[in-house]
Amino acid sequence: MELSNRLYIDLLKLTLTDYHRITYPVFEPVKTGKKKSIRTKIILRYLKKRNLVICKRRLQDKELREIGKDYPLHADTMIGLRRLNNIEDCFKDILENNIEGDLIETGVWRGGATIFMKALLKANNCKNRNVWVADSFEGLPPPNEDKYKADKGDTHYLNDSLAISIDTVKENFKKYNLLDDKVKFLKGWFKDTLPKASIKKLALIRLDGDMYESTMDGLVNLYKKLSVGGFIIIDDYGAVEGCRKAVQDFRNEHGITEEIKEIDWTAVFWQKKKEI
Ligand SMILES: C[S@@+](CC[C@H](N)C(=O)[O-])C[C@H]1O[C@@H](n2cnc3c(N)ncnc32)[C@H](O)[C@@H]1O
pTM of the full predicted structure? Predict the structure, then answer.
């Protein structure tokens, strides 16, 4: 890679993760409960009129951001530097070995990891591959407990901060000057969008949907399209038991024995060596 491209990719990793501002504290708006005293209500009204909010000052932690184990207030991706490095390593291997196919992430939040995929394509002058950006853009589905026991009691769907609109994600691509017609959006629940998506071949799959159902929908609909030599990355393997179970169930069912490699405390990946 040319030096200017190397510098571009490295700088992008720092900006997408917000790591370049790690030395400064962030100011996190304090959530007030539903039940408020009259005094609190008066104070909040007073602040609102003046466009003020109460914030908690939080110091950022370098190590946690590196491994994506914090909730980054301003970053365009939750995943830390190590997982971005992993995307780049897989991508390099794909290019060197001419592995056919597009790149996809299922579960994109603010879009950062897919923006990074698009930047890698651009920096390497790859004009024939799409980046697929799959998400409800409304957060996670409530658990379907009858069908997926492993998701019983899952509360991700209650988390509003995981619901980022498609317009915001498109704006995020635009602000890096990386939105074009080779970035394809799949809006809706994975169970509805992935089976009918017009994806032909994939070289890189990144599953980041947290739950058993979301992970299984990705595996069932996409793994058969992954080229031999391509990579599959599972973001929540260490962090979410349901996700890990979905991967184990799928691997057992299809006799997948490729070695699972750790990226950090939660994410893993493997390289597809044979068709299933
Ligand atoms: C943890 S966030 C993804 C983080 C992101 N990869 C990043 O780089 O920061 C999980 C995302 O998955 C999406 N999601 C989870 N399950 C889904 C499903 N079944 N269908 C559609 N979207 C889903 C949520 O809307 C959310 O944006």
Answer: 0.96
